[in-house]
Design a protein that fits this description.
By secondary structure, the chain is of the alpha+beta class. The protein has helices at residues 9-24, 34-40, 42-52, 57-66, 71-82, 131-134, 155-161, 191-199, 203-214, 283-295, 312-319, 321-329, 336-369; strands at 100-105, 222-237, 244-259, 272-279. It is built from 13 helices and 4 strands. It has a 4-stranded antiparallel β-sheet with strand order 1-2-3-4.
Length: 370
């Protein structure tokens, strides 16, 4: 990561003051409060939390303000802050089947147990700018319908009942889940580690790769088995206690893709899975993650690797927007010595080229005179 900057102390201090001035903007306009950002720019806050690997809405809102709305800079700020926090332990695996669902849709079954719950979504809007929002018009509160998690079996469970989809797969009892926030990435990756990297990968990058798999750049024909958005409980096991301690709940988005699979010598024809899980409400990111997860299982399923989305090292190494930003933006830093060295080299090569050209012209003249 290239982040260090050296230069005149006074100039840097002035740059900081100018940045703060531009961040505040017109003083006649009221300053943004963090609660306004949390409540009214919630999807941007959710992205910062997810790709920043820290579930804290107020800190994510603060990062958005400090970064002047630059999402990747805000994500960078959150990641830098989280490295200062102590680690108390790991929660139990989250049971998304017990989610308090706010939105749940499936593209595979029209009438499924529990029904389709549209929830808050842009899917059915007309994509027309609403001038009433500019006028600060109030909106009517929606009718509330209690949703029981037990009444919503997973679509994958319906397919599994007929043996038409691969099993979820169980991890060995002695398996220790990886943690990419504390351990360096190593290839090839176990799927749990790869899913972590995808979960905090750049939404735009994963979206483009997921799109590529649908345009023929990988063997992928997906159906959205199910998308769920809602609250899930977190529990922490404390060695001194015989029971898990509830810590509270967080909002997540889960996507299970159902993909075709013709089978192999070891597996019968069946559907396979792609999985996505992210903080907050971000179904586009969860869907893109699920598409990439399925594409990256090519080797596991005996498929040929023919596209970028199936190349684990390519996808994971380039999906981290903080790493990518550091590497690209370091080009703004002084490279005077390197450039002068290359400038001198190009000048010498140019002089040698011109000398050869002159010799060739002189030779041509001699031959013409003879």
């Amino acid at each position: 990561m290239y982040v260090a900057v050296k230069g005149g102390e006074a100039a840097i201090a002035n740059a900081h003051r100018l940045l703060a001035d531009r961040r505040r903007g017109d003083r006649s306009v009221p300053a943004l409060r963090l609660d306004q950002i949390v409540e009214q720019l919630a999807l941007g806050v959710d992205r910062v939390m997810s790709e920043g690997s820290l579930y804290d809405r107020e800190l994510a809102a603060l990062a958005v303000v400090q970064a002047r709305g630059d999402m990747i800079e805000a994500i960078f700020l959150v990641r830098a802050y989280r490295t200062t926090l102590p680690r108390f332990g790991y929660t139990r695996p989250v049971d998304t089947g017990a989610m308090q669902v706010e939105r749940r849709v499936s593209a595979t079954y029209k009438d499924l147990p529990g029904g389709q719950v549209l929830g808050p979504t842009f899917d059915y809007t007309h994509r027309l700018l609403d001038p009433e929002l500019a006028a600060g018009a109030d909106v009517e509160a929606p009718a509330q319908r209690p949703v029981e998690a037990d009444a919503m079996p997973r679509v994958s469970a319906i397919l599994a009942h007929e043996g038409l989809i691969e099993a979820d797969g169980d991890m060995p009892r002695d398996h220790v889940p990886g943690d990419i926030t504390r351990e360096p990435l190593q290839f090839p990756m176990a799927r749990d580690v790869r899913l972590q990297a995808l979960s905090r990968g750049d939404e735009g990058f994963l979206l483009a790769l997921g799109y590529s798999t649908q345009r023929g750049y990988a063997r992928n024909h997906p159906f959205v088995g199910e998308i769920r958005i809602g609250e899930v409980e977190l529990e922490l096991e404390v060695p001194e206690l015989p029971f898990a301690v509830p810590l509270g709940s967080i909002r997540v988005t889960e996507c299970q893709m159902v993909n075709q699979f013709k089978g192999s010598a070891k597996a019968p024809p069946q559907f396979t899975r792609g999985y996505g899980l992210v903080f907050g409400q971000s179904e586009r990111k969860a869907m893109a993650m699920a598409l990439c997860d399925r594409a990256l299982r090519a080797s596991e399923l005996g498929e040929d690797i023919v596209a970028a989305a199936q190349d684990e090292e390519f996808v994971i190494s380039h999906s981290d927007n903080v790493q990518a930003t550091g590497f690209v933006e370091h080009l703004k830093l002084p490279h005077y010595v390197d450039f002068q060295a290359e400038l001198d080299l190009v000048r010498r090569m140019r002089a040698e080229y011109e000398a050869r050209e002159n010799e060739d012209k002189a030779e041509d003249k001699r031959e013409a005179a003879e």
